[in-house]
Specification:
Helix 1 packs antiparallel against helix 2 and helix 2 packs across helix 8. With about 425 residues, the protein is α/β, with parallel strands linked by helices. The longest helix has 27 residues. The protein has a six-stranded mixed beta sheet with strand order 1-6-3-2-7-8. The protein starts with 5 loop residues before the first strand and ends in a 26-residue tail after the last helix. It is globular and about 70 Å long. The protein contains 19 helices and eight strands.
Length: about 425
């Protein structure tokens, strides 16, 4: 998919399942023959289907988790059960029934949203699978967890509740772009997630290409950007994944959030009377599906971008130097890298132990892990700063210590900063 752009707001773009597949095939065309194999393509298709299956099974897993919680309560000794509130122990009580009703409604509402999302991409939803008797496999816990991550990202990017986070994370980037980057410049937004930052940059008058690797995120961003036609069109329930954990009240974790807070087309001013006319002044807006380095390290992308702007992205690399070198090659002379986020390092893996006799022994012991967990190099900001300078960047602005939440629950007891 190197250099390929699919319009996502000026016109309804093709099914994301097809788009993602084509994007990966483009990457294969530029890789060596060993990687360009039928087996690789089958694995990609299998992964896409697994992602869709996890969305179809979201409510089923949520219901099983809720029932499992109830069963744990029932298995407690009588001495402990006697001190628990009836809302947990008496299925005939009104309080118990009310909680169960609220929980079931939340599960159904989330599934309804995901089913609408799947339909918009031309994929069978949960109801169609049940009615038509399709064969399927149960999703992995990891993929189901990602469906909840999508819900929390929806809050962060496309709800009124997420405004504080967007101001903290996107606000400094938008201000810096307006300050430094000439209008009309091409801006790349890697780690675009559900597309809010890319959309807001485009609304400022810049040509933007978002880049995202996660098919979970890509499916949802496609739906929001193309198919959400009015504010507060859907209600979702993003906080009940871990029932009772780090929460004050039951109703706090089963509260609804309305999305989107603004229609993407309206944000880009595409709903006016001239939106169907050819407007050469309208900046391009596209999304590129695939691995950041695989797409943008290609020579066709060198010196093509006026700015790379990202939030909570750079530490998603196994080695941050690879991302920074790729970005430096992408930028025109005088181009800008604008980044906001932590150094949490997504791929941090297990430590080497005294009984690991060699690096080969260490790799063999952890062969079940993604290789990126074993390749991750975690660096402090001082070292990252040196890498930036060694690559050829000039540091214009540098701020440390700003508060920025990430998919936080403002009624929860524990949040990620």
């Amino acid at each position: 998919m190197k250099g390929k752009r699919d319009e996502v707001c000026n016109e309804h773009h093709p099914s994301l399942i097809e788009q993602a597949s084509r994007a990966q095939e483009k990457n294969h065309d530029r890789n060596n023959d060993e990687n360009d194999s039928d087996d690789d393509r089958r694995q990609e298709q299998k992964h896409i289907q697994e992602v869709c299956e996890s969305f179809r099974q979201h409510a089923t897993f949520a219901r099983c988790a809720r029932n499992g919680h109830n069963m744990r309560v029932k298995r407690l000794p009588k001495s402990m059960l006697s001190v628990l509130p009836k809302t947990l122990t008496d299925p005939e009580s009104d309080e118990y029934k009310l909680r169960e009703s609220i929980a079931k409604n939340a599960e159904i509402r989330n599934q309804f949203f995901f089913d609408c999302m799947l339909n918009s991409s031309g994929v069978e939803n949960s109801q169609e699978f049940q009615q038509e008797g399709f064969q399927f496999e149960w999703s992995s816990d990891e993929n189901i967890s990602k469906t909840f991550s999508v819900l929390k990202s929806l809050v962060r990017e496309w709800s009124a509740e997420g405004k504080i986070e967007r101001c903290q994370c996107n606000g400094p980037l938008l201000d810096a772009i307006k300050k430094y980057v000439p209008k009309g410049s091409r801006i790349c937004v890697p780690g675009a997630g559900l597309g809010r930052l890319a959309t807001e940059i485009c609304a400022l008058g810049y040509s933007v290409q978002g880049n995202e690797f996660s098919f979970h995120m890509l499916l949802c961003s496609s739906f929001v950007l193309n198919s959400c036609i009015k504010e507060k069109q859907f209600e979702i329930y993003p906080y009940f994944q871990s029932v009772g954990r780090n929460s004050n009240k039951f109703f706090d974790i089963y509260r609804k959030v309305l999305i989107p807070d603004v229609v993407p087309h309206a944000l880009l001013n595409l709903d006016n009377e001239h939106s169907d006319e050819e407007d050469e002044s309208m900046p391009d807006f596209s999304m590129a599906a695939g691995d950041f380095v695989s797409i943008y390290s290609d020579e066709s992308q060198h010196r093509k971008w006026g700015c790379v702007s990202c939030a909570f992205f750079l530490d998603a690399a196994p080695c941050i130097a690879e991302y920074l070198q790729t970005i430096h090659d992408m930028l025109e002379d005088g181009g800008y890298l604008m980044s906001n986020g932590p150094l949490h390092y997504h791929w941090t893996g297990p430590d080497v132990r005294p009984d690991d006799k060699s690096w080969e022994d260490f790799e063999t012991k952890h062969h079940h892990l993604d290789k990126r967990y074993l390749a991750s190099i975690d660096l402090c900001w001082e070292d990252v700063r040196s890498i930036l300078i060694n690559i050829g960047f000039d540091l214009i602005e540098e701020r440390i210590g700003d508060t920025a939440f990430y998919t936080h629950n403002d009624l929860g007891f524990c949040n990620t900063v």
